[in-house]
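Bench notes, afternoon.
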Amino acid sequence: MSLFDENPVVINLGVDVFADELRDQGVDVLTVDWRPPAGGDNHLLPLLELLEERAGAQTDKANKECLKRIGESTAVLVDVRRAGDVVPGLDDYTVYHAGAPLAWEEMCGPMRGAAIGAILFEGWAATAAEAASLAANGRIRFDSAHNHRALGPMSGIITRSMAVQVIRNDVHSLDTYVTLHMGLGKVLRHGAYDQEVQNKLRWMNGEFAALLGRAARAAGGIDIKGIISQALHMGDDCHNRNKAGNALLLNALAPHVVSAGSNTEAIRAITFINQGGHFILNPVMAACKGMLDAGANIPGSTIVTAIARNGVTTAIRVSGAGDTWFRAPAPMINGVYFPGFGPEDANPDMGDSAITETAGLGSMVMAGAPAVVQFIGGDAAFARETTHRMYEITQGEHPAFSLPALDFRGSPFGIDARKVIRTGITPVINTGIACKRAGVGQVGAGITEAPMECFVKALTHLAAFKEESC
């Protein structure tokens, strides 16, 4: 009877309405954000049971091996090469793009604009109209860059004459490839293709790329994984905030750039790398892909090895499902817009840069990079909360990427499709917002999440395979 004589303190699980009623009566209530596994879905619960209980030991062993391979991987910038010479299958009239494979008629505005710009750059067409006609008539072969050990930010367009940075994972003998970051403003990755963009492409993929390649070789390689580790201790998230990482890369490259080129060439190259502030992003993306690809194709593993967006769909890959893409409509982005722009100008989520979140960077480490919230919206408390939530859907903590703000705890590492389904928490992605009109460029930045539908499809696929093997 003492319960009715004293003021109770109530713990409320899940539904807020019960807590609200008690608070109205002056009762102290602690609300716990609880939800039933898989949201109580009668279709998903048996699939979770199959992967967590009946096949749990096998899955856990596969996931442990996956994380081991990813964690032990290296990532070194060893060279800058012509894409057609190193990227598998990149022939004439072939265009690789960000995200899962997409046909021309399905592409969004900025992706089409970037493809037109690449076709003009290659000289396969003389005008934008001719380039669009080639693409529409099936003369251009399109494919996902991810399918060929390559990737790129936003539209992610790669053609044979473009230069790519070669990132080497020595432990697993894997090379991955990424284009050169064009800086801010009017750029190809956002769908711009006018003469100004073409001139910049020719300089970047000619004189600049040749100089950068000589510098990387003279340096004996640049340790990108080491730069990531240091940059995290200096306030970067290595996706949207790259001030420290960019400076570290430039510090490693500058002496070799100076010795490998004329004064004029070196000054222009160093100034370009420094001014954009995000030149390091592209090699970081390729580093993350090389590490994650080392953990791919492990039977039974439920670890996510890629998250990629093409402006139409968001897609994921899971280690145990090999190269299969699990797709859902690309979400819009909640964020902050540049002056003169708003949600009506925004394209759905686009780009391969979510590979950083997949590897334990970006939104996963927002607690250690609170300054990034000034760019994407939110506050320091939101940054900490986001990182703590990401621990709930990952299998481990990264052995090389740690967060001083969390007593040097390793970053959330190894997104587990089972945990996403069980908790209802999906990976958060920090990203830029591209204008839906080709050529306008970035109009803001913000937060989005990988759609739950991707993980439902992946879990269904893995469970069906496991059921057959049983």
